[in-house]
Design goal:
The complex is a heterodimer of chains A (about 220) and B (about 250). Chain A has about 220 residues and is mostly helical. Chain A has eight helices and no strands. Chain A has a single domain, classed as 3 helical TM bundles of succinate and fumarate reductases (Up-down Bundle), CATH 1.20.1300. The chains are: A mainly alpha (about 220), B alpha+beta (about 250). Chains A and B meet through α1, α3 and α7 of A and α7, α8 and α9 of B.
Chain lengths: ~220, ~250
Amino acid sequence: MSGILNSSIGRKFAMALSALFLMIFLLQHFIINFSSIVSADAFNNMSHFMGTNWLIQYLMQPVLIFGVMFHFIMGFVLEIKNKSARQIKYAKNNGAANSSWMSRNMIYSGLFILIFLIIHFIDFWIPEINTKYIQGDMSGLLPSGEYRYYEELVHKFQPMWRVALYCLGFVFLALHLMHGFMSAFQSVGANNKYTKALKGFGKAYAIVIPLGFIIIALVHHFNH
Amino acid sequence: MNLTLKIWRQKDANDKGKMVDYPITGIEPDMSFLEMLDVLNEALINKGEEPVAFDHDCREGICGMCSLYINGEAHGPDRGVTTCQLHMRMFNDGDTIYIEPFRAAAFPVIKDLVVDRSAFDRIQHAGGFISVNTSGNTIDANAIPVNKHDADTAFDAATCIGCGACVASCKNSSAMLFVGAKVSQFALLPQGKVEATDRVLNMVKQMDEEGFGNCTNTGACEVECPKGISLENIARMNREYLKAAFKG
């Protein structure tokens, strides 16, 4: 058990665990956001619960931040290590003959997702932390007495540049998940008779979730 | 067939090396790739030039000695073959063919297209075996019942010839398909289970020490493997390793 992160398989396992955790989080995030185009009340209620429940705020939120940071840092560490494992490059390399573009460019799709996440944090997470923990307003209410979450969400998606940037971020997320979903399962050792079905499910997940996020952003932009 | 070959020439391990162009004529489509290189070398020798050094031995696809990165792929553009089984009919008259050594920090170039793959031997020495009494009272392997599926899967893993195409094709120069195959072939059989914990820990440790990269599951190794070794073997090695590591 000691030094498992010092071994190539241990690092791969940790990378996969953080990825699986992030994919579960993403699904949860998607479900709540999707409710915003169905019912503003449902979205407000769920957002208020997530934003004020102590278990989510003080346990799950730090775990999530750790998970995100770990996944990014480990991704870069592995990339540097892997680059140094081949110092002289091939004069001609036909990567497309044996692997997908997504699988060969995880670092670039990941890098774009990181940039997107920084913007996303500035847009939503930092104002949220400011309102709740710096200003001390845990009510989640507007001066009018209504919940603020839906209003804030819609307001954010008014500028076209932000909608475009978010859509681009989701495209890179889809590309990342196209390889990442199945890769995470392979890394934890799952490769059996269910692999084919899991591959199909992974492809569907990689398209449906980011596409859903794109639809949410577009609906709020064009509806208001 | 008339071809232009772009070949990596490197005098020795310390030389910087470079790609050199060689026009070649009169190549038959029925020739193997190595025979084509023999023709080139004969011409070079006749001209008083240094022939191109490349690895080969059995020339029937079972020894794992031939290598070469041809037009951007390990063992060239054909599937399920080693370079000695690659035929010139896979190319067209007038083609330019890039011929490079397998590239990995763990596979240093010795000369031209010859690389040192002894890192694989050291990984094997670390655990790719079973300890059997061979002093005269060896137990008949067939006396232990093995289920057919496991025997077949173990055999599939055992067909790995250790050529290193997996490492050469992997964008990370990872050796996990090779080590996965070697771990799997024993892990599936009762004779191998006895030393399974130490085997996987030691082989993976040696693999990491040799400087191979980390697997990112691109699957390039599986596609380029001349023996069709499946990614399932890497998943099995991951399971074996995690089981062993958590056991302590």
